[in-house]
């Protein structure tokens, strides 16, 4: 075997090993999700079977049918939970993005006193685990009378998301050359127009990704929501999962079915925004 | 079209003053180049004119009107940035028509003006591309196109060619000159490249440390520099500038080597005065390989040893040792030289300069 053949063979082997490695990694990441989807179609006996039953024998939509049935037939107010989740997540994301854009732009473009300390302070809030906030937040909210309201939950999620959105959006605005806004101002724009016409579209991918992160945080959050909600008026989907737990039993199949209902909007949103996430839009703006 | 006047213009960042009350009058349709080394305040001055930097003191007039506090959009000027600053999310057509769109013009009004500018700059076939699909030179032309579409009163250029390679730079220099001849507007052009300034400008403003050192035509600043700084800055390779002392009707260098004091300086210096002697490489050449501009009597001949040569094809730069320092001369119709070779050199003293040893100002009077 000459050296060229050997090198080619080595290359092929390496590329095969690379693909197998990637497949295994993806399998590890995706398996829990797939298992949830699969479990939502299987009877509880099969889900809980030991040793596990890998190949499903009995698939049905029973859990989904039951979920949307009335009380007493295994139904839960899934529509209400979904509505609550949507209202809370969309509103808190919109507010967090608005504040994040204003803050991120200010940090990226302006010089002001104690800028770095404020920035560090924002980052430090991320180090506090959400669950540690639940008790103090509960006390404050009960005094304010905003327990079991959309408003209360939205406020909590905005506070959780703002530092992160500011941090992320700041980074994206920094990548937009300052010259562009100046060129726009010379071309006749006001500062505000220069922002909306030039800087905002260019920072778009960053703002979109900050939006996804904020939305997913609010959509999936359980710890705070379980403390601050009480009834169908404000309970979100993750809290709704608890409806499947009874004193002695857990309806794993129903829970998985609800989890699938939860996952779908998040997946759809990610797919929609994904194309906006592709960065590199700024290449060619300045010398390249 | 408009005049631009800078009256005691000052720029301060906190307590630090970077532009110290400069005065400059730019005539209508004039091409002015601001040159100077990095940090001399030329870009800051341009940005003050553009309205991108607040003015800390003095007045700025465009077309006779004080515009100190007007935002950039109200000054009716266009600017070409060093980085081109093309909007990457817009096509060339949209980039060029952007200012008109912002001004509220309809697509029907915008299209012919963009087409016309594109034709002028040979960009018609690129109108539907995005900046990322263009080469450096093409981006540069789009940036100029975006500026001319507006038909502004004043064009500002901030080192527009410094990101291009040498060949393209020469080409674009010609384009800019043609463009100015065609659009006939007032141009203020910032560059650190003195060749650009010399070739393009009607007048050159040489800046240093936030002050204006000299304003004049390219011939003025080249032939009659006001100071040692200007003499050293303008010209390539730079003027030979050597410290010396006046003694006995001669310019005496540190090693004891001496040159006759050029006749036009005789009344302007006194014995013992510290001076800086300046001679351009063109005026120091091996005998028979240069052109002297004055009387034969002003040419001083002296044998020098060649240290190093830089052949450029049509001429050779010759480095040699005189007066305890290295001098560079220019040899026309060159022949091959070897290091260490002794050659009779001509010092064309009719073209020599003398600067005060203390202040660096010219002693020409």
UniProtKB/TrEMBL annotation, chain A:
Membrane-topology annotation of the record: Multi-pass membrane protein
Alphabetic keyword roster: Cell membrane, Membrane, Transmembrane, Transmembrane helix, Transport
Record carries keyword Transmembrane helix: yes
Listed SUPFAM superfamilies: MetI-like
Pfam families: BPD_transp_1
Main location: membrane
Intracellular or extracellular location(s): Cell membrane
Record field: transmembrane: 20-41, 85-107, 119-141, 153-173, 194-216, 252-273
UniProt domain ABC transmembrane type-1: residue ranges: 82-273
Protein family (similarity comment): Belongs to the binding-protein-dependent transport system permease family.
The protein, known as: Maltose ABC transporter permease
UniProtKB/TrEMBL annotation, chain B:
Source taxon at top rank: Bacteria
Domain ABC transporter as annotated: residue spans: 4-234
Xref: InterPro entries: AAA+_ATPase, ABC_transporter-like_ATP-bd, ABC_transporter-like_CS, ABC_transpr_MalK-like, ABC_transpr_MalK/UgpC-like, Mo/tungstate-bd_C_term_dom, NA-bd_OB-fold, OB_MalK-like
Positions in coiled-coil regions: none
Chief localization: membrane
Gene3D superfamilies: 2.40.50.100, Nucleic acid-binding proteins (2.40.50.140), P-loop containing nucleotide triphosphate hydrolases (3.40.50.300)
Subcellular localization: Cell inner membrane
Keywords linked to the UniProt accession: ATP-binding, Nucleotide-binding, Transport
Bilayer topology: Peripheral membrane protein
GO MF annotations in UniProt: ATP binding
Matching SMART domains: AAA
Pfam families: ABC_tran, OB_MalK
Family membership: Belongs to the ABC transporter superfamily.
PANTHER family cross-referenced by the UniProt entry: MALTODEXTRIN IMPORT ATP-BINDING PROTEIN MSMX, OSMOPROTECTIVE COMPOUNDS UPTAKE ATP-BINDING PROTEIN GGTA
Protein name: Sugar ABC transporter ATP-binding protein
Native source organism of the sequence: Shinella yambaruensis
